[in-house]
Amino acid sequence: MERTILITGVGKRIGYALAKYYLAQGHHVIGTYRTHYDSIEQLGKLGASLHSCDLTDPAAIDELIAHINEHYDRLDTIIHNASDWLPDTNGLSPSDTMARMMQIHVSAPYQINLALAPLLVAAAKTNDDSIGASNIIHITDYVAEKGSKKHIAYAASKAALHNMTLSFASLLAPHVKVNSIAPAMILFNEHDDDAYKVKALAKAILPREAGNNEIINLIDYLQSSHYVTGRSYAVDGGRHLK
Ligand SMILES: NC(=O)C1=CN([C@@H]2O[C@H](COP(=O)(O)OP(=O)(O)OC[C@H]3O[C@@H](n4cnc5c(N)ncnc54)[C@H](OP(=O)(O)O)[C@@H]3O)[C@@H](O)[C@H]2O)C=CC1
Ligand SMILES: Nc1nc2c(c(=O)[nH]1)N=C([C@H](O)[C@@H](O)CO)CN2
Question: Any idea of its EC number (predicted)?
Fold first, then answer.
């Protein structure tokens, strides 16, 4: 069955991998991006519907929502992937840092979920029992439960994002399942040096750079489930046991 899947932040890394995967599986992908990389051209050639949307701009989010409501009568899955991993020492004031983190990771998903929930419900009501409910997936972070000395505002916003998983799961049942995915070491960044990599890998009892497929496979499972909602799934190499 072809799903219509909205993914935020498809320009690179996990979001780009998710978009490519679901396009290859024959689904219709609506992707949002901020920076127009070559990857956006690639996704367009693969059939994705792509929308520039800076999630710090509520008006841009309203435009995205209006477009989706005008052109679609159903949504099967929303994946809130877009994120800014902003350290506390970043040149902005503390209030601007926290406001930015809460806007991108909490306010934007909140605005999108409330506005597009009717499309998710509409899809679920047309699905036969083998497909079941629609899905919202919030990609949070291991630090939502642990905190972070260097990314306090980021971690707090990801914890708030998970709290919204609880609220939206209660609000939208039984037509929409809402779950969090809390990753740890999925992909290094290009600027990560060897010393950083050794330190980061040592934090887990399964010391590895997990890779995109850990997230893809879990999202496939969550979409296939008929009985999982309001939960967080850790993808973190057993960091809590170190
Ligand atoms: N990579 C990892 O190991 C881990 C990842 N995660 C989470 O997984 C998800 C994906 O991670 P990853 O692929 O590494 O993320 P990246 O930081 O590499 O990319 C995130 C995406 O979000 C977009 N984005 C950032 N700020 C904004 C904004 N203001 N408006 C719109 N889009 C924006 C980026 O666009 P642009 O390119 O324009 O900046 C980019 O496409 C995130 O939610 C992240 O927090 C959690 C733990 C570990
Ligand atoms: N938006 C992002 N969030 C996070 C990233 C990232 O690259 N972009 N990376 C991490 C780290 O991998 C961390 O989990 C391990 O050092 C966390 N969040």
Answer: 1.5.1.3, 1.5.1.50
Query: What does the buried/exposed string (b/e) look like for 136-166 if buried means 16 or more CB atoms within 10 Å of the residue's CB?
Result: bbbbbbbbbbeebeebbbbbbbbbbbbebbe
83 lines ligand 2 (CB under 6 A): yes
Divide the 242 residues of the chain into consecutive groups of 10 and give the mean pLDDT of each group. 96 98 98 98 98 98 98 98 98 98 98 98 92 96 98 99 99 98 98 98 98 98 97 98 95
Q: 16, 33, 142, 154: which is the annotated catalytic residue? A: 154
Coil, helix or strand for 211?
A: coil
- Predicted TM-score (pTM) of the model is 0.99
Cβ-contact 69, 119 below 8 angstroms: yes
Residues 6+ apart with CB under 8 A from 91: none
ipTM (interface predicted TM): 0.99
Give me 170's structure tokens. Answer: 């209660």
